[in-house]
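TODO from last week: model CoA transferase.
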Amino acid sequence: MSNPRRAPLDGVRVLDLSRVLAGPFCTQTLADLGADVIKVERPGTGDDTRAWGPPYLKDAQGNDTSESAYYISTNRNKRSIAVDLATPEGSAIVRELASQCDVLLENFKVGGLKQYGLDYDSLKDEMPRLIYCSLTGFGQTGPFANRPGYDFMIQGMGGLMSITGERDGLPGAGPQKAGVAVTDVFTGLYGVIAILGALRERDHSGLGQYIDLALLDCHVAMLSNQNLNYMTSGQAPQRAGNAHQNVVPYQVFKTADGFMILAVGNDSQFRAFCKVAGQEQWANDERFAKNSVRIINRQVLVPLIEQIMLERKRDDWIAALEAVGVPCGPIQTIDQVFDHPQVKARELWQNIPHPLAGTSPTTANPIRFSATPVQYRRPAPMLGEHTEEILREFGLKKD
């Protein structure tokens, strides 16, 4: 029996003029929520990430296709139209598409679309209901507005690398970027939030608006408690390796046969840990009894724990600690992640039918609706796959 309820964004049309990661991640999430996302790409080359391989998706014969793993990670549930914005015909097509869409998202450099008449100021009077979202490195204002911005450099400029990596004076010390382009991902998610907010406001006012979203702004915002550590103390947080700045013990420890994470979040959990470790006196020691003093005496407590942790195997520690409610866990490789029973139960590996490969793998959207679950309707589109279909649908080409 079909579901009588519509997807949350069913009926919303999004014109996606973005490429690489932040913008496509944003529009993929909107598409997962039911929006019709039309991805506008350059003829011949398309989104830059199509060529960001190997690895590439393989066809039914096991040969590489033109679809890189990077590209397919952020473009499912979309349709692709190949249009050359640099031509009068191409810019006119995109303008007409915009006039029939609810949202336009772009990540061109500041002012980059003005020459084509596709900037917000050129569209807003003709299209008063259009929600127009610009993603740039530094935003539309300020002394850096015209500079390009990329995830890696923003991780450095924005402070994340100053608090990521091993502590100074230890082997391997130095700034370290995150293993995923977290600035792009967070900016994409902030983009989703902003667009949803603008759509909701339009329900009341009937009007669209402009959204100015910057990688640097989003990056600084996501530093969260680390910002407040500085704002309230006047002291800039430093790299702490795998240790937590505000909670002890909350870090990686070596066991008899490997590494694990111990994440003691409160004093009762610390007491439970001490009991499992056979060191109940720690819980009553005035240097360790409360988290506030454990932080002060971190350099005393952590070596004691390090010595104890070496006495048992990782899985033995995890079983004993989980039994008394102490948060802990292994450090897994990504193949181990997808083999984990919880990940399997949550079906985080999905497959979508694909015209070349048979099926295309994708990571499940983590949003779980009880009545309108996310549907994996389309694989990441091939370049220009839906050009003719979209042109006819929007009245731009007759059969």
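Done. The first helix runs from residue 22 to 32.
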